[in-house]
Amino acid sequence: MSATTETPTRLQLMELLAAIGTAQWRDFAAAAAHHGLTSTQAKVLAQLNGPLPMRALATLLVCDASNVTGIIDRLEARSLVRREPDASDRRVKNVVATDEGRDVIRRVREEMQATSGALDTLDAAESTTLYELLARLRPGMEKNA
């Protein structure tokens, strides 16, 4: 930031984060649609780095557990996820991405052209700085999620 540039206000920063988040979400949704997924179905696949209980998915998606059942039903019908009983509590059903599901979400992320194009405008030092700043913000942003 140059010496003549004023420090942005917290509101300006929040508005910029919101605009970037919205644009990234639109890009994500478009890439997901290319693979026959809704943005919510793709978001589920993106969250499955390991087994995740249905209730935890409902919390991440900020929706009712009954909505998650329908989402998982449709993903399971396409063999993108599977349900399996939790090892410690067999009443709990965990959702696990299949190899095909992991491949689809990888392709969705690779096809996010607007996001990739915007990031390509940064040089290596700027990318590193942005990554470090976002990594510092992430824990506080996810704390209440």
Question: How would you describe this protein?
Answer:
With 145 residues, the chain is mainly alpha-helical. The protein contains seven helices and three strands; from the N terminus they run ααβααββααα. It has a three-stranded antiparallel beta sheet with strand order 1-3-2. Strand 2 (81-85) and strand 3 (93-97) form a beta hairpin. Helix 1 (10-34) packs across helix 2 (39-47), helix 1 packs across helix 5 (99-110) and helix 3 (54-61) crosses helix 4. The protein is globular, with a radius of gyration of 18 Å. The mean pLDDT is 92.
Share of residues in helices? 55-70%
Rg result: 18 Å
Uncertain segments are none
Provide the residue-averaged pLDDT. Answer: 92
Q: Secondary-structure element order, as H and E?
A: HHEHHEEHHH
Number of strands: 3
Biggest sheet record: 3 strands, antiparallel
C-alpha end-to-end distance: 31 Å
Q: Give the helix tally.
A: 7
Strand order of the largest sheet: 1-3-2
Q: What is the general shape?
A: globular
- Structural class, by secondary structure, is mainly alpha
Strand content: 5-15%
